[in-house]
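REQUEST ID: PR-0412
SUBMITTED BY: lab tech R.K.
PRIORITY: routine
TASK: structure prediction, single protein chain
INPUT:
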Amino acid sequence: MDRAQKEKVVGELDQIFASSGVVVVAHYAGMTVAQMQDLRAKMREENGSVRVAKNKLAKIALEGKPGVKMGDLLTGMTVLAYTEDPVAAAKVCEAYAKGNDKFVILGGAMGDTILDPAGVKAVASMPSREELIAQIVSMLGAPASAIAGAIGAPASNIASILSTIEEKAAA
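STATUS: complete
OUTPUT:
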């Protein structure tokens, strides 16, 4: 790889570290090409990506970034999994690691917070952005449905009382 190619890779990695909500670092030694393609497909489903890069180039790209301490994780055969959603990459990696013992999560970074494997697992257990939005929408809608039920309840009670009175008067 010549200098221009290395500079291009460092630029791409720089963009990844700057724009990703979370970056997960894992060892992938012993994985087959099919297994790696499967991991890439699962990450694509979550609008994420998987990148294998030379550790030295990744460390250069990390210089001056908030997650610079993540460089300590970059040893051996490492792969970077990343998404803009701060939870999706961790969820995919955690699920994939459960089914493949050759994929070992080393840690990662979420902004300027460095994550160890337990931290990645904790992030993976958090609800995704879409799940949080759905929860907020349901919470916003619940009071409105309760108010509508409260407003409608007296009218139905009055109607049932009137029908009871009418039945008694007719009998």
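NOTES: The first strand starts at residue 22 and ends at 27.
REVIEWED BY: pending
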